[in-house]
Amino acid sequence: MKFEAVIFDFGGVFTTSPVQNFAVFERAHDLPERFIGEVIKTNMHDNAWAKFERAEIDIETFDSAFADETRGAGFEIRGRTLVSLLSLTFNHDMIEALERVKQAGYKTGCITNNLPKLDSKGMLAPDEKKEIVERINANFDHIIESSKAGVRKPEPRIYEMMCNALHVEPPACIFLDDLGVNLKPAKAMGMTTIKVPFGDVRPAIDELSQHLGLAFSGD
Question: MF terms per GO, please (predicted)?
């Protein structure tokens, strides 16, 4: 298969995953494993998290709505508390892989679910440098942010929007994301998908290397 484009998620791919932070919070509060994730997955296209990522509600509304949803699941977590858990650090190996893909002449895109007034720079841990986000973004031909586009993963439309922007058909694309639920629509459209494991991006980089026939740093 001749690939023309590589499309990336941002959080959980170029950075650590918020899911890792959720797990720390859950252990600290003796909550069931994946408690937060299960709340976010419930009614996933129309719950408080989905509406916030599409910028349909503001932080005040999200704060109370997420509290209601989590309280109904057995333990109240305010929306602002959830936002405070979105503190991420960089995966430098993946950043280098993106640069190599770009240098090799492939089209590149980023589809990210993010929050109003909280872009990738705003989600960084205090010791991380915002300039690195600019370095990453400079290697994308097109970026789609859910809070600006009004559509989010895993809604199929957002993948169609990226293909249209890059002028490619889905079978000519590779898509990387850390969440399986976000990979399913891309795969159904004909994209080759790669799941980025939590805590270790090297297996995903190795898989990308095999698909493209490119050698990445550390290979």
Answer: hydrolase activity
Q: 156-166 vs 180-189: helix axis angle to the nearest 10?
A: 60
Residue 217 lies in a domain: no
- What is the total count of domains within the chain? 2
Instruction: Return d(Cα 35, Cα 31) in angstroms, integer.
Output: 7
Q: Return the residue matching tokens 């993946």.
A: 94
At 114, the pLDDT band (50, 70, 90 cuts) reads: very high
**Which sign, positive or negative, has the C-alpha torsion 110, 113, 114, 116?**
positive
For 149-206, the pLDDT digits (tens) are 999 999 999 999 999 999 999 999 999 999 999 999 999 999 999 999 988 999 999 9
Rounded CA Rg of the chain: 17
The β-bridge relationship of strands 5-8 and 192-195 is unpaired
Q: Which domain holds residue 156?
A: 5-17+88-212
Provide the 10 A C-beta neighbour count for residue 126: 5
Q: Position 175: which residue type?
A: F
Q: Which residues contact 9 (CB under 8 A, 6 or more apart)?
A: 110, 111, 112, 153, 176, 177, 178, 179, 182, 196
